[in-house]
Design goal:
Radius of gyration: 22 Å
Number of strands: 6
CATH class: Alpha Beta
Structural class: alpha+beta
Shape: elongated
Number of helices: 5
Length: 142
């Protein structure tokens, strides 16, 4: 399974010059936990609801955002995304394609895919037994 199978395509972005109050309103209105911070269509950071928890309302987004956000391509595997998130204090990866923002994948997306068995499908309940075999091939062992 690949990132494009589980990512959210409609990403909510915010400008680094916006106030924290605007970010809180967007997070509440959209029901997301992360906003991608963009400037001139370039990803410069990520803002999560945890970043906003104890931040005064008159603070700018650039002062509390996580800078140098790691990004991932839509064709990468879920395993690679999990490896990138492991051991870091981040909960999402912006997905870029051709240098442009294409989506976002979060730890919740990865856990949902894992819970569905998407990475390793369940084996079939029935076991197939061959009743007849064809003739054995005899040849020189290599």
């Amino acid at each position: 399974m690949r990132i494009h199978d589980v990512m959210t395509r409609n990403v909510t972005t915010i400008s680094p010059g916006d106030l924290v109050t605007a970010a809180r309103e967007r997070i509440r209105a959209e029901g997301f936990h992360h906003l991608v911070v963009t400037e001139r269509r370039k990803i410069i950071g990520v803002l999560s609801d945890r970043d906003l928890a104890a931040t005064p309302d008159d603070t700018r987004v650039r002062d509390v955002m996580t800078r140098n956000a790691l990004t991932i391509g839509p064709g990468e595997t879920l395993r690679k995304a999990a490896g990138m998130l492991e051991g870091r204090n981040i909960g999402c990866l912006p997905v870029t394609e051709g240098g442009k923002l294409a989506g976002i994948v979060t730890t919740s997306d990865l856990l949902r895919a894992l819970a569905k068995g998407a990475t390793h499908p369940e084996p079939p309940a029935e076991r197939y037994i061959l009743t007849r075999r064809g003739p054995r091939k005899r040849g020189n062992p290599v």
